[in-house]
Protein 1
Amino acid sequence: MSSRAAATLATSVYSQLRDDLLNGQYPAGDKLRIERVAAKYRCGLSPVREALNRLSAERLIDRIDQRGFWVKPLSDGELQELTRTRCWLEERALRESIANRTGRWEEQVVLALHRLARATGRVQEQPSSRDSEWENVHRAFHSALISGCGSHWLISFCEHVATQMHRYRMLATAAEGEQRDCMAEHRLIAEAAIDGDADRAVAALVEPYRKSAALVCFAQWAAQSAIVE
């Protein structure tokens, strides 16, 4: 196999494994045995080792010396810390984007909201369609909101924390069911941002994050209580 083909395979394995980890295909706390992962993705051991090392560097999995790789556990403490950090970072990024707003930035936000509305409509018609496509469109909307902040570092930090929170958001989505109007929440953020009302836009942005975190903590507590009883 050529070096280019090997690199392509390693990247493919990394992408598949990363998506499966973030979407909860691997239980929290489980050991990621290299042989089993290689068998699942039908590849050799080297691409799996490279993928696992990359994911460990991104802090998406844990690496324990002499023991191997493990799926990161979920905890209320980490969720609360991630939520606070995301609110801090995205508040600053959104405020800066609003302060620097241009016609092009507003168009990007409106277009991202439109695409999210279309994807959400498809999900409502066919719930099973809430897959990676919807997630990508949803992520693109939030990226558009902060894209005008003027700091590539700040955007990178926001994206990293959002990725770390993804597994928790999947738990919140499962627990919420149909209780929340996703599009109403996102439309409120976009309208306030385009109107230049930073305080209202920030409040609309961070409140759903906090609600989701509280819901996940409650759901996990309820599940533990049921087991004890």
Note: The two ends are 56 Å apart (CA to CA).
Protein 2
Amino acid sequence: MTRAAATLHFSEILLTLLKGKASLLDALNILCRDGIKKQVQESTYSLLFSLKKGKSFSDGLRTINCGKVRFEPLYLTLIDAGEATANIENVLERIVIDLKRKKKAKENVINIMIYPVLIILLAIIGTFFILYKGLPLFISGGLISPEIVSDAIFGVILAGFIMFFGASVILAVYIKIFNNDSPEFRVFYLLDLLLHSNITLSQALSHCIAGFEQTKIAHSLVKIKKDISIGVSFSTAFSNTNKFSPYVLGWLQIADRHGNLLDICSYIKEHYAEKDQKTREFAAKLLEPIIIILTGIYLLIIMLNVVLPILTLTGGIL
């Protein structure tokens, strides 16, 4: 069981038990019983041990983060807020929904990447076959003269490296696009949840800062909090960071004028969610052409450095 699967399994069962009016300690004791996945059991034992030592639920979760059940900083921030407002159940429900969304997104990435990965693997296998089987055969058959062997080997290695490097970059980019939400979405996702949990704006921003740790967006949130603390309007504080679009800032100005910050944060969260989804759809459409271009470059290098010299020597090209 992966960490993501263990975390989702733990969260779903705990949420179900809490909705059934079990206390947190009773629910965790049930999670330690036989029939529960071993990875979840072990993490729950560790969590219970932390709670018995006087730690809070969120601190206990931070302690077990080296195990199979692992909550990312964003979720720990939400749980902190849930403890502060005695609203753990609602927070866990949001976390379960988000974990399921990420699980589905990961499955989509796998489905999208199967075809390109197969092509890339076949190309790389073909490269090794040419190097260790094809070239020696061509040399022994007199199809390649010794003087062009080094050029052929260099060409094959170059083609394989370009394919491998290009595939690695594509994979990294697509995992980032499909598996991670944009920082802007996460900011307003947190603000929407925290403000609807009856937490003050200052407290909500503090929780957001903690959730992003030492990142650029965290530094921007620190600046926003400082500006608001000295009387700067919400929209102006966000505008001063130069990280949000005029469209979003326009909605924040409406929130300043009408005092409906909660509704506006929800709207902006959905705006960024839709924007992230469009980015993923566009990336999915581009994947096949990118792989075709990469494979074309690979084949071109092989043609120029291996096939063309063979055809020339055998009279295929004069």
Note: The chain is about 80% helix and 0% strand.
